[in-house]
Amino acid sequence: MDLELLRISTEPQSTNGILFHKLKDGSRRFLSYTIEDTYRKHKQMHTTRIPSGRYQIKFRTVGGFDSRYRKRYAGTNFHHGMLELQHVQNEFMSFKYVLIHCGNSSKSSSGCIITTDTQENNVFKPEGWGSGSRRNYERIYPIISGALLKGEEVWINVVDFDFGENITEPKKVTKPKAKTPRKKRTRKLDEDLIKRLS
């Protein structure tokens, strides 16, 4: 199974995106809106999104999130483990425990991918905002977990659609130093100079 996350709006505190299921014929099926932390070239804990790239997804059956979701869905056959991206790194940073889970803004992210049914413009909502997250998660989780339970490999391709794949750190704009104005040479200055030298 192939998933594709297109990041469509990167702002200083959040990233909005759209998650698709890529079908075998090349078409895409919409799964959810997404919210992540913002782009940084070097990782800052809890406020940096993962690098773009292709990552395998597997179940994570330990940890705090797994415990909470097991309690939330106790008595059902819904939860089989958290959806965790594997080997998330580039030359500048690496991440552990990158999950796909519920939340409403980049405050819920800490490097993870938050899925929602609605999305507000993060130009106006700096940390991003989405609602219907649990409803969305309960709709898309069986699609992804179902593939894993059948023994299929699940991969997600994370694309920086709004920047392109070659992101560079924004250059700091420095104002050129003001030059000290030179005195304009005049006939009077020349005459004064000649007097001092004589």
Describe this structure as you would to a colleague:
The chain has 198 residues and is an alpha+beta fold. It has one domain (2-168). Helix content is 19%, strand content 29%. The protein is built from 3 helices and 10 strands, in the order ββββαβββββαβα. The chain has helices at residues 64-72, 133-149, 187-197; strands at residues 2-11, 14-22, 28-36, 53-60, 82-85, 88-89, 94-95, 98-101, 113-116, 154-159. The strands form 2 sheets. The protein has an 8-stranded mixed β-barrel with strand order 1-2-3-9-8-5-4-10. Strands 6-7 form a two-stranded antiparallel sheet. The chain is elongated and about 105 Å long.
Compact summary:
The protein is α+β, with helices and mostly antiparallel strands and 198 residues long. It is built from 3 helices and 10 strands, in the order ββββαβββββαβα.
